[in-house]
């Protein structure tokens, strides 16, 4: 009797909007006396953190910040940045974390586009904000964070974070959103191809992504997490919300340089951290004289760019249990994982690294991931060869692009989110990225994966970083051009690099030009190929 089922509606007892801010309330109740943060001499319990977040949220409300207002944040990975991931949405406002390495022009664009009502910024970014305001032609109110553990300018006459916090009520009521579809944060794409787009997250997606991460990594209340993933990037891959759900211990270093990372690992017995492949590369370089691998192994998520197999192999030798995950700003961060398969155990170390360089299968909280021909809507064969575009569907997908309905409609064509990543599907259903669609090089009718060529370049002893882009060619239309950063103390010539590639690649895939020098990257380690394409047009 269908009508009897339909008569049973939602009630307060059986339906509560999903929101990751609920995790902090649980952490306060269950893990209140346990350490939540360690930052130098600062140690705070989960009860203290929850109290501070509740108080700051009330201060925002009393200050006139209303539901749906944008609060922009320019802060490195320090405890206050974590707190803001709860206090801002608890107030009903939308958290906009801004990349701390952006130039003033882009910061000004984001502040204007995001309709920012209030800024919370570390004092080290005072000059950046001043320049951004000059470009905007107006000021926006700023609450300053004065960090005693950083070499930052002294505070100005602006209100500081701690003073502002004290204006709130420590016993203020904690409210979940009325609607789990309500916006929780506004994140801007990393700008690898021009002006960033504003990506709107919802409470439901944040909640499910956090739980999906805990299940997939896995993590427990005994997790000791080293904060390396920038919290301005996909809200730290949603890790702040995930960590609260289990009452983990979080270690902050502010600046995640290799010596501080290794020091934290040794002193705090770190069990988990995330980072882009460039972080792994830095750790490999800094640990080259280490005699013993880390024990027990540390669980590491890496994402942001497909890691070369050589880096995965070296990381494993250091005692880092690396799993590649894949996602975009539009998908709340990582949504696929390269799960280890038992049949890989008998492969050589090099072959295992090749397997682990795939993007893998969908997270449990993702409904579906497919590789398809966008023009026909048909899935490509699971042959590991036929190329299509990754398309996904599920709850950890953005609400849409802020103030850009046309871009939103295009991204959600036919009921799927189209990632723009070219990939193949293997017979075991593992996805493997071949390239960003705009980065595929078509030379004489042959498709060349820049990722494949870059993977070979990383195997050269002198190569610190590598990127491949297309340059025009009279006969072939376009051919690969290699940009290379050399390791300190190493030298290489163009001829040497090209000859090395010829040993490992088909002739048409071999770079025809090599440019040495610094490679521009975003703060999350993504190479800005649009900058390199401009450079390549002039070589």
UniProtKB/TrEMBL annotation:
<protein>
    <submittedName>
        <fullName>AMP-binding protein</fullName>
    </submittedName>
</protein>
<keyword id="KW-0443">Lipid metabolism</keyword>
<dbReference type="InterPro" id="IPR000873">
    <property type="entry name" value="AMP-dep_synth/lig_dom"/>
</dbReference>
<comment type="similarity">
    <text>Belongs to the ATP-dependent AMP-binding enzyme family.</text>
</comment>
<dbReference type="InterPro" id="IPR042099">
    <property type="entry name" value="ANL_N_sf"/>
</dbReference>
<dbReference type="Pfam" id="PF13193">
    <property type="entry name" value="AMP-binding_C"/>
</dbReference>
<dbReference type="InterPro" id="IPR025110">
    <property type="entry name" value="AMP-bd_C"/>
</dbReference>
<feature type="domain" description="AMP-dependent synthetase/ligase">
    <location>
        <begin position="26"/>
        <end position="402"/>
    </location>
</feature>
<keyword id="KW-0436">Ligase</keyword>
<dbReference type="Pfam" id="PF00501">
    <property type="entry name" value="AMP-binding"/>
</dbReference>
<dbReference type="InterPro" id="IPR045851">
    <property type="entry name" value="AMP-bd_C_sf"/>
</dbReference>
<keyword id="KW-0276">Fatty acid metabolism</keyword>
<feature type="domain" description="AMP-binding enzyme C-terminal">
    <location>
        <begin position="452"/>
        <end position="526"/>
    </location>
</feature>
